[in-house]
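Q: My labmate handed me this sequence with no annotations at all. I'd like to see what the chain might look like in three dimensions before we decide whether it's worth expressing. Could you predict it?
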Amino acid sequence: MKTFSAQHFISRELSWLEFNQRVLNEALLPSNPLLERVKFFSITSSNLDEFFEVRVAGLKQQIESDIVERSMDGRTATETFRAVRKRVREMVTQQFNCWRDDLLPELAKNGILFLDIEKLDAADSAWIENYYRAQVRPVLTPLGLDPSHPFPQLLNKSLNIVVHLEVDRNGELQRQMAVVQVPRMLSRLVKLPREDEGLVYVFMGHIIGHYLADIFPGTTILGYWHFRVTRNSELYIDEEDVGNLLSAVEHELHNRRRGAAVRLEIDQSCPPEISHHLLETLDLSEDDLYRIDGPLNPSRLMSIYEGDHSPELRDKPYVAPVGAPFRDSRDHFAIVRRRDVLLHHPYEAYSSVVDFLEQASRDPNVLAIKQTLYRTGGDPRIVGALMNAVKNGKQVTAVTELKARFDEANNILWARRLEEAGVHVVYGIVNHKVHAKVTLVVRRDDDGLRRYVHIATGNYNPSTARLYSDLSLFTAHPDYGEDATNLFNLLTGIGQFQGARKLLIAPFTVHASMVALIKAESKAAKAGKPARIIAKMNSLVDRDVIEALYAASQAGVKIDLIIRGICCLRPQMPEVSENITVRSIIGRFLEHSRIFYFENGEQPKVFIGSADWMTRNFFRRVEVITPVEEPALRERIITQILGTHLADNTKSSHLAADGTYTIPPVAKGTPARDSQADFMAMAMGESKIPAKETLVKYTFANLQVQAGPRQGSD
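A: Here is what I predict for the chain of 714 residues:
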């Protein structure tokens, strides 16, 4: 058995950048509808923002510290930073080439125009001037830079304009610099009026630039350039040393907007002396400078994607049907009493989850509702159901995660509103994010008290549920109810973890259980028994799990990993991971479900839950992984869900040992398969898999999945 060294692992940061490249590839793909390409172009930028705010900020802190150590892939922080810088520059160049050379001309052909303010006709120029005078000028604050006017503390990711100007002081011409921050309440795209409702825009930054002489009267504007500063946005809270976690998070959120600068983006044409001055002021180096030949902060371009215009430039609309078990009855409790229910979102409507909560809030027989809230989006149906439950005399508990990254302020707002409504709000375990997605409803049925449990792979957020691929399990099995009760008691009270009958719960049992399940497959393979692992998740980072997978591969276990984002494992290495394939599916919906399949001696074990195979999920978060034990549901996950994912040969990129991803060409005579399109067809009863077919065989890499008759929608 080989030992594993740095060469056997992929850099976490570089793997994430390859994921973002796959997102960008969707913007580059001519076969995608044009506005969908703009969406992926924008998402690429918002992803990079978060990457710099957290991962690059962390690298820079490591570089500045006294601790020197190597990451799992053998790089120091400085070496990783250099590799990241090189890869990001390549990506940004490709991204803005796509904008200028492809997306912008195609948008123009389809009547979506971005006009140069200097070339507007008289009517548009007059309208823009009126707009500027009425809506823009009153909220601008010009900031001169001189000994009496220090450089302003610019907010994280705000759009700014650096101005080089000349002013006459007592007959002497002096050159100075100034800054104008573009207020965030102003739209970055200004839509010009058109009688035919045409989509014609001017960038706000260009409007302000055009009128700079108006806010710097008596000066000569020598030039102006847009720039943007990205800052460290990680929260630093010692939970064991604060009296009030909510107040501490609020304080850190205020600081986040002014954290240490980690990146400067600036117009391509900005002279070196101007950009150098900004870098010095922000305590950055040329390594942190990114020159942009296009609009800064393309995530604001999502505004042209929004609205109900241009349906021909979008994916065909998809309205998810209600899952079959809930179609004929509105009594969710009666249905779940009879059998467990599995839903596949967004292909089956998330409204069933909302209906379950709303029914619980109204039902006079419901005594208590307990729910974890990680990213609610402030949806009025979710939080409204909890508030209404209180009004209806039920005991309601919400375990709210205040530190859900970039949703902290929203979660604080809703935590306060829930408390004001009488919901008992708690914040979980010290130094652990509550990432589990669980609801417990206690109801007095005719035959006694019964606990109904909902466990999901995705957040309680109906908005993102239309975009994210996730699974929901409803069950009234007593063992699941007992485990959920003990989980909430642990989160809200004081005590020690006492184990669980069914659920795997991090930080207590998930890591050890997953490693043990992998090792059990190794043992089976060595004994000549069937051995298989299929795992679908967002990220694979944990070293112990990766080494267990390598050992399993060496033992002969066939392993297929479906990993949307980061993967630090190198597949297809001779004598190490040649039995492992890794693929990533990027498509219309964000692949978000976590599913784990183990052959278990031809008695398959299937799990779903909230945790990726990352060290943080195993040890620094509260996570729930649940077995799916009802045979029909387990078979549906294996054959219909995992099998369809593995059959995807259109949107599935395969990872090579060198860390690169490619979509293999479809063999001649092999039908093209898009898993997300197939799932939509299945949910609508238009499946490409004939309903009467008794054997479905998907062939790929080193695996053949044989499926029985297609399962129903339950």
